[in-house]
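Quick one: structure for this chain?
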Amino acid sequence: MMTGRSLMRFLSHHVVPAVSVVCAALSFFLADGFTWARAIHWDTINLLFCLMTVVAGLDYCNLFGWLSDVLLGSCRRVRTVAVLLVLLTFFASMLVTNDVILLVSVPFAISLFNRFGIRRRIPLFIVLLTLAANLGSIATPVGNPQNIFIFSKYELASADFFAVTLPVAGFGLLLTLLSVLFVPQKEVKVRLRTGQQLTHRRLLIVVSVLFVFCLLTVFKVIPGFWLFVQVTIITTVTAPRLLRKVDYGLLLTFICFFVFSDNIANYEPFRVWLCTLLERFTMLTALLTSQVISNVPAAILLQPFTDNWQGLLLGVSLGGLGTPIASLASLISLNIYLRERDARLAYFMRGFLLFNCVLLLPLILFVWLIYL
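Got it. Here's what it folds into:
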């Protein structure tokens, strides 16, 4: 039986899903009928499930650790290591989502900086990796959950999507690399090779093929139901433990916010107010909403009220910068850092807010000049 203390501990580790359940439940006071049952976008839920399962398999086979070893093994300066790890995080987030890559790169970076003997720089580097993941994930439909949702819900053409996201991600990469100049140019005194090897090579081949299937589903080459059947059956037979590594809390969050958005969409005063706001300030509304409820729920909440997918996409993409709440990936980085024995929350928050604001302002100006 779950005690009060264990319940509080559980809720503290599942804040976002818990809030989404409460929001969905309260929204039924505004519901009119059962339209919410049709509002759940199962194509998005299915694709997220399959991607998380496949990426869990890639991680289980130590692909990310092996790649880090290969890329960083010959480095001799701290700043060179920083640049390569930032680049690896930036480009990897385009394929395996920003939150997943931070679960790998942040602990790896902490370990490296401990070996360098410059622990006081760890908060700075975690911030840089978080920025790299959030900005790199903007580029592709599978880079983050909100991209998957918007790309699928609006049935976008690949060319239209990339025309919006690639310039923003490219400018974000430039700003991130300039930020790495704050990392000290110190010579590395230890060998970086740790001898990490690929494991479970047969499984690695299987999940790599399934990952290609996921990408083909995103671009509407193969149907989503076929992908779900393949991933579920093959994973159950070859590596059922991967199914336990799926973030079901994130899937529940999506479902609850689908229900929440549909219920409040049927509340006429709110519908009129939000439609008016989005018609005039789509990107700004999405960006500011992301700061309060994070960019994934913001995308789901605002989508039914606007046909301006470009403004919504740009708003929730840039909305991942700002407060730690603005992106689930940022919360992951913060939680990993707080597990360190000498973690300083105030120091981390000052650096996080400073770098996020300094990068967010030129990004907003860039988007305004190019698109608006």
